[in-house]
Design brief:
single chain, 465 residues, alpha/beta, D-Maltodextrin-Binding Protein, domain 2, 3-stranded antiparallel sheet, 21 helices, disordered N terminus
Amino acid sequence: MKKRMRMLASLALAGTMVLSMAACGGKSDDAAAKKDDAKTEQAEETPEGKVLNIWCWNDEFQQRFNGYYPEVKEVAEDKSTTTLNDGTVVKWTINPNENNNYQDKLDTALQAQASAAEDDKIDIFLIEADYALKYVDADANVAEPLADLGITDDDLADQYQYTKDIVTDDNGAQRGTSWQATPGLFAYRRSIAKDVLGTDDPEKVQEKLKDWDNFNKVADEASKKGYKMLSGYDDSYRTFSNNVSAKWVDGTTVKVDPNLMTWVDQTKTFTDKGYNNKTSLWDDSWNADQSAKGKVFGFFYSTWGINFTLAGNAGEEGKGDWAVCEGPQPYFWGGTWICAAQGNDNPKTIKDVMLKLTCDKEIEKKITKDTQDYTNTISGMQEFADDPKFGSEFLGGQNHIKLFSEVAPQIDMSKTSPYDQGCNEAFQGAFKDYFDGNADMDTAKKNFETTIIEKYPELTAVEWP
């Protein structure tokens, strides 16, 4: 089915790249059948470029690279370049992700890959789960199989399976790798939990929030105490969208999953009853609700969200007043994958970057220890989970890695599609007027249909449950 769905307007790329990559180092079907050791030997004999071009949408990977890749020699003051020990200059191209901006610019650059000068070619580009399939599709011929770089299954054996599945094409070739896994939890204010539930103990709070019926009951109890259960419309969305029964698109039909309509019903109820603060993700009011002055019970957050966004918004006053529990359903949110662009001129360096930053357990553990991020070695995370001395100061000493390690194996990527980012954004946006009472259900549905067909002209219909 995925092959029928790769007709994205922004990826006229597919046909172009299939032809052009043959001219710039892409693998033909016959070449792809050669043994891995022959490919590795050939890559080692190929002179490396003087510039390693990396494309991404924010500075997260740049920070990981500059901070933990052992070959980094120096970083430019403006951080636009990084110099490696062998003299290679890493050039960073960062384009914000909003409104498909990053993808559109990346697609244009990849279309020009064959004709680009050697040191202008994209070597590494980053992708997210919501649109990963678009770039790892074998027919698109955009991301190079890791095996072609000489990276083996044994090298990747300690990584979480879902992080490999999302970047594996229909032929079984893995075309990307990640330094992180992003299972989600429910982060709650300890002081508010004590006031509403009489306890802030994570196990006892989890018992009160173990499913949606119980979660909704606590929302009512919190409201009576003057608190909001959630900040805004979007807070619980990923928990519902990660537990759907099918992919967004079947053939050329968009199919709205019943679980997404359950999110709509819950959010409408929460809005009407005052259980949320009518904010949207990332806006100023949403950020403020996470401060020490906030009156919101909790937030659904994955690994990166807790140690970066939430901790930053909570500030010093909030340190120790937060904890995490599993919440009503397992889910994941986000994640970043490293891909090698077909036609790159730095295969040896790319291989080393991937192995060091995504497969080296000691480097991964150092990232976790320094940043509290959840990294992508199963054995490494288990070591932290089993360590009675490990804990987060921000979470009052709680070992959040232990909870994350229980959720991560439950993540299922089988329902993802190349249309996820666009469909999820359009769906959330279309229903905000409905939540506020400025549009009825039918109007919200029509608005979604209009947006999605305009975004993806190749899709012909929207089917509602």
